[in-house]
Amino acid sequence: MVARRQTLVLAGVVAAVASAGQAADMAPPLSVAMASGGWAATFASEARWFSWSGTRGTPTTVAANGGAGTQLYVPAALQLVGLPGDDLKVELLARGGWVTARQSTVGLAGEVATPTDTVASGTFT
């Protein structure tokens, strides 16, 4: 079985793709920070592309003519930090993302596209 991990990372106008057969992160993820009126917002995201193929089915008892699959994973995070008063600091964080995956193994073909688990947290100091 040949496993390939390709990473597509967007940072401003720069796009990089790892060559086939490599498994390496190329550049830092997209990160944007803004500040206004005592508040700062930071958004971070990246796109990760994975693909695989093999000469035998997966699981190996399904097909003798091989199988293949792909996955696109796009995690994202948003953080807000503010000082609404002299004695109060507010920190809010939300993380989530999107994933789409496809498997084309004979007898087990399928596809899914869905948001990932989303979490949110906050701290008031």
Task: List the secondary-structure elements in sequence, H or E.
Answer: EEEEEEEEE
Largest sheet: 9 strands, antiparallel
Average pLDDT over all residues: 74
Structural class: mainly beta
Radius of gyration: 20 Å
Spatial shape? rod-shaped
In quaternary terms, these chains amount to single chain
Strand content: over 45%
Distance N terminus to C terminus?
52 Å
* Count of spatially separate domains: 1
- Number of strand elements: 9
Poorly predicted sequence stretches spanning 5 or more consecutive residues: 1-27
Indicate the percent of residues in helices. Answer: under 10%
Short recap of the structure:
With 125 residues, the protein is mostly beta strands.
How does the SSE layout of this entry go?
Layout: E1 2-11, E2 14-17, E3 30-36, E4 39-45, E5 47-54, E6 67-85, E7 88-103, E8 110-115, E9 119-124
Antiparallel strand pairs: 1-2, 1-5, 3-4, 4-6, 5-6, 6-7, 7-8, 7-9
Keywords: Signal
InterPro entries: TAT_signal
Signal peptide: 1-23
